[in-house]
Amino acid sequence: MSGGAGHGSYIAARVLFPFSMLLTRLEGEIGPVAMCAALLQFPLYGALVGRAVALKIDRVVLFAAAAHLVAALACFTGLLPDFS
Question: Transmembrane residues, as ranges (predicted)?
C-alpha cells in the first residue's frame, strides 16, 4: 500500500515513524541515522510504557503519545521532500 522506494508513497512511514522522517530534513534522505531511530522507536516506546505501568505514572505515556502525534502532524505540513 505504501511501499516508498519510488513505488508508492511514504504516508505510513510518516505516521508510524515521524521522528525518523523528520530527520530526513537534516540528512536529505532516509539515511542510517533515520533508520537507526526507526529501529529503536518502538522498543523505546515499549520500555517507556512498561516502566510507566510499573511506577504507575500515566503522564509519561501521555507525553510520549502527544510528542508522536505532534511529530506525525509535522510530517504532513510540507516540511518533508517527496523522495520520489
Answer: 30-48, 60-80
| Residue 6 included in any domain | no
Question: The domain containing residue 40 runs over which residues?
Answer: 11-75
Q: Residue 38 falls within a domain, yes or no?
A: yes
Classify residue 80: in a domain, yes or no: no
**pLDDT tens, residue order, the chain (84 aa):** 565 555 667 888 889 999 999 998 888 888 899 999 999 999 999 999 999 999 998 899 999 999 999 999 998 888 776 654
Distance, in Å, from the CA atom of 25 to the CA atom of 62, rounded to the nearest integer, reads 26
Terminal Cα distance for the chain, rounded: 15
Gyration radius of the chain's alpha carbons:
14
Q: Which of 5, 13, 7 is nearest to 34 (CA)?
A: 13
Q: What share of the chain is helix, strand, coil (3-state, %, to 5)?
A: 70, 0, 30
